[in-house]
Design goal:
With 364 residues, the chain is α/β, with parallel strands linked by helices. Helices cover 42% and strands 14% of the residues. The protein folds into two domains: 131 residues, Aspartate Aminotransferase, domain 1 (Alpha-Beta Complex); 225 residues, Aspartate Aminotransferase, domain 2 (3-Layer(aba) Sandwich), CATH 3.40.640.10. It is built from 14 helices and 13 strands. It has a seven-stranded mixed β-sheet with strand order 2-8-7-6-5-3-4, sandwiched between helices. A hairpin with a 7-residue loop joins strand 12 and strand 13. The longest helix is centred in the last third of the chain and has 25 residues. The chain is globular and about 55 Å long. The chain binds pyridoxal-5'-phosphate. The site of pyridoxal-5'-phosphate has 12 residues, from helix 4.
């Protein structure tokens, strides 16, 4: 059978291995499996969310409120931007998909960092756009600018903090960079982990408000999947000038967010204490990974997120290490697919991390 040619050289995105598969493949009891592979919040979400969604579950016959008023109002308040500046997606992933279809086609170039979130490339391929990558592992804005001048890309993706490396761009440098970019190029600032960066270092903190007020060619992306502990709810958002949002809306399927997700995200936004406490805990626990790496002489990239990236020398092989850990029920992310001899480990709860260090001591 013939399929869309654009799909020919797409590698299917490999999500963090689900616990269910590890149970089936290795016969390990679910209680003995620790998943530190997808950067979810190990503390889950605000208990208030759990209470609120019970009511929704009792009444699911009606379609969701497609105006998404409650969640948009919550985001409006949180970020001090107007509702018309916001689009909500089934994960910020879906907003990336909208952006790609709204802006790019076969004649477009998309500029991304050498190592970054894999979905930018996949969505670019959907529309047949050409990917241009930097060479440096961390976002080097001078290199970005040189490539921008050379290629005039339709879209530039800046992932800050970056996944899967955890480093972040200085906010001031990013603002200066965007100021030099022509209005025809859309700059996407993917802030999936911005809550963590803002906590760790004020200098890395970017707000959607400052971006949207200063620039008509920027879209900020946020998600409830990470710090807010709602990965299972698939809810994310984009914030940009109204004209951009209007174009993205043309691509949005009706009812793209379930009633349950809308309610969960709205309530989660109201409990900022929960989020800040779990972020605080994350960095306290991260210290243990930094100590571990120093002790074992393993390179660790300074992280502004809820994960750490451990880079190995040639004597070790990240794929083998990830595999050995997996067989013992510890799911982490091997980064050899990103051409890095490294693993990415989500910072878990204290006892999950205990387990990681116990196994790592033995296996690494
Ligand atoms: C997790 C993640 C997203 C999107 O997550 P959703 O669950 O689709 O909201 C986007 N960008 C980066 C860099 C991420 O790590």
């Amino acid at each position: 059978m013939r399929f869309n040619k654009k799909l020919e050289n797409i590698k299917t995105y490999e999500a963090g291995k689900p616990i269910e598969l590890v149970v089936r493949e290795f016969g390990i009891e679910p209680k003995d499996i620790v998943k530190l592979a997808s950067n979810e919040n190990p503390h889950g979400c605000s208990p208030k969310v759990q209470e609120a969604v019970k009511e929704i579950v009792a009444n699911m016959a009606l379609y969701p409120d497609d105006s998404m008023m409650k969640l948009k109002d919550g985001l409006s308040q949180r970020f001090d931007v107007a509702g018309e500046n916001i689009i909500i997606g089934s994960g910020s992933d879906q907003v990336i998909e909208f952006i790609m279809h709204a802006k790019a086609d076969e004649s477009s170039k998309i500029l991304i960092n050498s190592v970054t979130f894999a979905m930018y490339e996949i969505y670019a391929k959907h529309v047949g756009a050409c990917i241009v990558r930097t060479s440096s592992q961390e976002h080097d804005l001078e290199e970005f600018y040189a490539l921008y001048k050379e290629h005039k890309p339709e879209i530039i993706f800046l992932c800050t903090p970056n996944n899967p490396t955890g480093d972040a761009i200085d906010a001031e440098a990013l603002l200066e960079f965007v100021a030099k970019i022509d209005e025809d190029t859309l700059v996407v600032v993917d802030g999936a982990y911005m809550e963590y960066a803002a906590f760790r270092d004020e200098k890395k903190k970017l707000t959607p408000k400052e971006l949207v007020e200063k620039f008509s060619n920027v879209i900020y992306l946020g998600t409830f999947s990470k710090a807010y502990g709602l990965g299972g709810m698939r809810t994310g958002y984009g914030i940009a000038e109204r004209k951009i949002i209007q174009e993205l809306y043309k691509l949005r399927p009706p009812f793209n967010i379930t009633t349950l997700s809308l309610e969960a995200a709205s309530i989660a936004l109201e409990d900022e204490d929960f989020v800040q406490n779990s972020i605080k805990d994350c960095f306290e626990q991260m210290q243990r990974y930094e100590d571990f790496a120093r002790e074992k002489k393993i390179d660790i990239i300074k992280s502004y997120t809820n994960f750490v990236t451990l880079c190995f020398d040639e004597e070790k092989n990240s794929k083998e290490i990830a595999d050995k850990l997996l067989r013992r029920g510890m799911i982490v992310r091997d980064l050899s697919g990103y051409e890095m001899n490294a693993i990415r480990v989500t910072v878990g709860t204290s006892s999950q991390n205990d387990r990681f260090f116990e196994l790592a001591d033995e296996l690494i």
